[in-house]
Amino acid sequence: RHLLSSVPRYDEIHNIIYGMAKYFIRDKTNVYDIGCSTGLLLKKLSRLYAEKDCHYIGYDISDNLLPESRANLHFYRRDVAGRNITFENASLVFSIFTLQFLEPDKRQEVVNKIYGGLKKTGAFIITEKIYAAHPKIQDIFTFLYYDWKKKYFTSDEIYKKEEDLRDMMFNLTEDENVEMLKEAGFRIIEVFYKYYNFVGWLCIK
Q1: What is the mean pLDDT of each run of 10 residues along the chain (205 residues)?
Q2: Rounded to an integer, what distance in angstroms lies between the CA atom of residue 129 and that of residue 197?
Q3: Rounded to whole angstroms, what are the CA distances from 205 to 73, 144, 160, 169?
Q4: Is the Cβ–Cβ distance between 90 and 31 less than 8 Å?
Q5: CA–CA distance from 203 to each of 125, 126, 132, 157, 160 (Å)?
Q6: N or C terminus: fewer CB in 10 A for the chain?
Q7: At 122, is the secondary structure helix, strand, or coil?
Q8: Do 27 and 141 touch, CB atoms closer than 8 A?
Q9: SS3 127
Q10: Whole-prediction pTM value?
């Protein structure tokens, strides 16, 4: 619920993802979601594409949110930057506003690992909050975003949230994110969503 009131058109991002997923989910493969939280995305996909014989695997660092594993849904408390996280035989991997909380050097290692675990023509769907390339644009987007958030939060709540995130979020520019994806090996990288400083990319191996 918090993300719906913090990320513009968050529900629409999920709707787009559900539609794109059908082009990549393949039988006898794994689908991963890093930072899966309550597992909503994977649960919905497993219902939408129940005819597919595959496993849905979610990783999150907070075990108080993780649902119980069942049937072909598997959830694990794992640090996405840890050594014990793997991506094997993957047809599709998601990172929905997750990598932005990793320091940039660790982030590249994770994306490299994801690319290595994807099957040929498999996809990595990633959304991130970014910095605008120009400071004037950054200011415009920031205050337009604050105006949007006022529909859900008071000014004090908005400030407190920004203060809390100050030492937790490590945003990159759009170009820096694309360079990171290219460095991992991705050559097909396309924006599918953009709203102020929020961007989503579809990357195909």
Answers
A1: 79 96 97 95 96 96 85 94 90 97 92 97 97 96 93 87 82 97 98 97 98
A2: 5
A3: 24, 35, 40, 27
A4: yes
A5: 6, 8, 21, 35, 34
A6: N
A7: strand
A8: no
A9: strand
A10: 0.93
